[in-house]
Amino acid sequence: MPQPKTRWDIFCTVVDNFGDIGVTWRLARQLVAEHALPVRLWVDDSHAFERICPEIDVDLAQQWQQGVEVRHWPSEWVHAEAADVVIAAFACQLPANYMDSMAARETPPLWLNLDYLSAEDWVTGCHGLPSVKYKTVQKFFFFPGFKPGTGGLLRERGLLERRRQFQQDRSAQRQFLQGLGIDPAPDAQLISLFAYENTGLASWLDVLAGDATPTHLLVPEGRILGDVARWLGVETLTVGAIQARQTLTVQVLPFVRQDQYDHLLWCCDFNAVRGEDSFVRAQWAGRPMLWHIYQQDDDIHLDKLDAFLALYTKGLPPEAAQAMNGLWRAWNAGQPIGEHWLAARKHWPPLQENAEAWCLEQALQADLATALVQFYVNWI
Fold first, then answer.
1. Residue from 9, 45, 84, 276 carrying the catalytic annotation
2. What does the pLDDT read at residue 19?
């Protein structure tokens, strides 16, 4: 493994509110904590960062958080010496002066484009291939993924063991939920909802409200709140709001730090998530889930959705796989999902078993941070 003096720079342009910074913040912390590497995280939006790391001082250009040197990425770039490993997260464009600094090094750095997560077949073939070159500096593609031959997923050391212990400890779960002001009925199913705006939500809430099984719906503040408020018939929903309709209780949660969000997912019976960071964390929760993928032009995001579904549902009985496919596709098309939810509920035991089996299967691969470090070792 590389010596601790090997310096790493990670650049993050916040595009989708929290997904980009969520991934890069987890990665930076893990490289420091588990690989003893000095890491600078360059972020262009400190206010978005502050939501998942409240200790951040948004007015500081340079600070240290959990061992990571956090630097504000200014619109007018100032000179900074290039690191030994440079990660451009999600194809963000590095400052021209910084690229010149990379090229000026006696030994060119390893330059990686950490790409978006996808289960599509072509990812395996492109992972690790050279990309563009800037003067003497070669850039390489690095793809997270679900198959051998990709970079794997972000997973901290001991994560699944901590998750299992927590899920087996009712007292710990109750204490965590109470800390967020959550007091569900003893027989209520817990569902978390973190999603983009979705016109299909109302039909799901209708079904949940009319279900004989009580549901406590936990909604972290975010873009879906407007749709929830419209269904409830209220103008706005703020943090702490609790509204009940028949057997459905809706509670709005504050935006919490990453480790707290992990615990929230671990507490829930079902997790609806969005983007990339929460998508991966829901898989490590080992519970049935629903993914709201980020919409792209020409619906190319649906190819990514179908590619993941093909992998995720391959271990399910045909009827259960069909129910999950219908639920996910309707949700991502903004269509009513109430009937699809009822269809999925008929196959709950196999869906639960599949979620845990998928989690364990993905844990057989090297985690993303370790794969990045190993890529550098092989490169030098």
1. 276
2. 64
